[in-house]
Amino acid sequence: MTILIVTEKPSAMKNIADALADGKPKKEEGVGKVYYYSLIHKNKKILVGCAVGHLYNLAPKNGKGWTYPVFDLEWCESYKLNKKSDFTKKYLDTLAKLVKESDEFYNGCDFDLEGETIFSLILEKLIKKKDAKRMKFSTMTPEELVESFENPMKSIDKSMAEAGRTRHWVDFIFGINLSRALTLSIKNATKSFKILSSGRVQGPILKLLAEREIEIQKFKPKPFWELEALGDVTAQHKNGKFWEEKEVKKIYGKIKDEKSAIVKGITKKTQLQSPPNPFDLTSLQLEAYRLFRINPKDSLALAQNLYTKAYISYPRTSSNQFPQNISLKPILQKLEKQSEYSKLIQELLAKNKLQPNNGKKIDPAHPPIHPTGVEPKKLPEKESKIYDLIVRRILATLADPAKRESVSAELDIKKEPFIATGIRTIEPGWHKFYGKYAKFDEITLPDMKEGNQVKIKKINLHSKETQPPKRYTPASVIKELENRNLGTKATRSQILEALYQRNYIVDQSIQVTSLGLKTTQTLEKYCPEILDEEMTRKLEQDMEEIRENKESKEKVISRAENHLSKILKHFKENELKIGKALAEANLETLKQESKIGQCPGCKKGTLTIKKGRFGLFIACDRYKEGCKTTFSLPSNALIKPTEKICKECSFPEVLVIKKGKRPQTICLNLECKTKAVPSEILKEKRNCPKCGSQLIIRKSLYGSFFSCPKYPKCKHIEAIQHKDESKKDIAVSE
User: Fold this and answer.
1) Residue 167: its pLDDT value, please?
2) What pLDDT score does 660 carry?
3) What is the dihedral of CA 539, 542, 547, 553, to 10 degrees?
4) H and E: helices and strands count for the chain
5) Catalytic site residue 623?
């Protein structure tokens, strides 16, 4: 008898093969250099292959023509649907080969909706059986993988598979129909072509962001004033904000020259600050963004890498509560071997009882994110940060509460009440275990008693204005989506990324573009059902009920199709109006994105990004009036305006975004002092290592660099290394 285990990724395939093999697994070549593993486990012959994600995807049965509505779908091989998925054919063919050689089948994909969907389709279309055994694991440690194989679930989770398939089906019909409707509306109204997208979740999310944008735009600041006393202590007037200028100036005039204050009373409060809850995916994404400015999409990818390397548990979990069957003591004992955590862990292990400060959220499939105890080999910088954060979080959640003391001193300055506040940590508790990630204010007041006099050096009158609501960040919007039950833990960051790609939103402090605003406003006017948050939330509940065997797939899909049909009918009635409005919005957005700033040449025109025979460049819009100001742009980068001016030369600055590199803010002026080449480097003579010619210094947007004079025949370049170590090397674009 031969057993075939199907995994979701090559890394998981290797982990399972290594864990189960009596000895070393044999790496075998399948189709098109795709490999699999064969091994023996307790006299059982096992083959382990992988699916590299979705080998099957949905497609319209009648795929001819860009029309809508589309409801008649079928599951097809991914490689037949999209050229980008061509690579999946060799994986499908390899699995087909292994299926013929096998008698029994195990699902070794991730235990979630996606994993169950992936395998259920392989089971139906390739293996052609109704059921298989299921390995259920939350970590990639050898111990857990062996346990999940030797004691598998007797059947795949069919309700989870049905819920996963239903989600794909519903999301597909909403996505393809709404995106086609939006795109065709522009084409039919203006004969122009611009791909727009929307979806079951995308529309409500865009509306949420647009509402915040409008709120910011409409905000009118309101002036207020504050009184501050500086001296032995820093104190604020008890009234806080003053809304009447006349009133605050009267008080200020009375006390401005005072040099002392009388302590009228001291209030002290001690509070216990509970440890944090264990990480679920959302809280990890929030914390990674707060501490490291790693966006949610990337933090999920980093956590997924750590999971496949067996360093942490499965990251796509919504649980922040450890089940009783998970003992954390063995994990700590393994972690103790890692020197940076050993002393902290010894302190925890000395406690009578290890009890995590559990939250209230439960995921039946997976526990909270936690380290496995497996010691990582050398990790990339960002992975190392995420790993350390996860380890320290679990240590913190097992630690004692922190004790904090707040002190409030009421001061009298010529019968005007002021309040000085202080706060300090008395017992660090879990702060010690969370380390540098536990950041809290420490403000210590001097010892004071009622009736004491304290010195006042200065009294300030501050004039301020109320501020508009804060923009969402990628992390805070994901938290808001979780609170509203929009999308899933695994899809929220993907949907947000789609909004960026469609140019509906820009920047990390999320700003909705003219196109995003106009799209929302237009749909709100002519077809508000597309943006209906409640409809999306109800569908999420429906799919959860499928998972819980409380609802059928057929009924949910039928309701979704009926609802979507009404939306599309309403849309069609207003198609031309919608298309015209969206086309205008797209044009306005493009104009805004192309404006760089005032022309430093003529001082009258506006620098604008233009497209020429040799690619993009920047030129003054008064070129017809004779302004010849132009700037070349690198071909391998995205350029965005910043509305900033260089402090050295007053030229506009632009944001340069290159794939795989951190965005740079760069001055357009090639002669700017910030790009000056040190005199000692100007004197240097060096030869091209490729052709022997003496290198010359050239200038680019990024700064100066050494280049071969025989360019383009010889393309050798070198960054200029400053002898002043405080200066960064200049990046060069070939």
Assistant:
1) 92
2) 64
3) -90
4) 20, 26
5) no
Beta 56-60 vs 73-77: how paired, if at all? antiparallel
Instruction: Report the relative pairing of strands 2-7 and 104-107 from DSSP bridges.
Output: parallel
Q: Which CATH number fits domain 166-217+470-585: 1.10.490.10, 3.30.70.100, 3.20.20.70, 1.10.460.10?
A: 1.10.460.10
- Helix ranges, 510-601 (H): 514-526, 533-547, 553-573, 575-594
Contact criterion met (CB below 8 Å) for 478 and 493: yes
Predicted structure pTM score:
0.81
Q: Which residue has the tokens 């096998």?
A: 102
Tell me if 566 sits within 8 A of 572, measured CB to CB: no
Between CA 119 and CA 124, with CA 121 as vertex, the angle to 5 degrees is 110
**Interior CA angle at 622 toward 620 and 627, to 5°?**
75
What token pair was written down for 694? 């003496």
What is the spatial distance between Cα 579 and Cα 585, in angstroms, rounded to a whole number?
Answer: 10
Token reading at 645: 């001016």
Report which of residues 23 and 733 the model is more confident about: 23
Name the nearest CA neighbour of 5 among 151, 101, 105.
105
Confidence of residue 681 (pLDDT cuts 50, 70, 90): confident
CATH number of 281-398: 1.10.290.10
Q: What angle do CA 339, 341, 347 make, to 5 degrees?
A: 120
- 255 neighbors 485 (Cβ within 8 angstroms): no
Helix, strand, coil shares of the chain, percent, nearest 5, are 40, 25, 40
- What secondary structure letter does DSSP report for 528? G
What pLDDT shows up at residue 722?
Answer: 55
Q: What fold characterizes domain 223-274+403-465?
A: Topoisomerase I; domain 3 (2.70.20)
Cα–Cα distance for residue pair 368/317, rounded to 1 Å = 6
Nearest to 640 by CA among 503, 517, 447: 503
Please state the rounded mean pLDDT for residues 219-232. 96
Tell me the pLDDT tens digit for each residue of 661-678.
777 888 888 888 878 777
Q: Which of 37, 56, 311, 314 is catalytic?
A: 314
Handedness of CA 238, 242, 246, 252 (dihedral sign): positive
Q: Are 668 and 651 in contact (CB under 8 A)?
A: yes
Taking the domain 2-156, which CATH number applies?
A: 3.40.50.140
Whether 441 shows a pLDDT value over 50: the answer reads yes
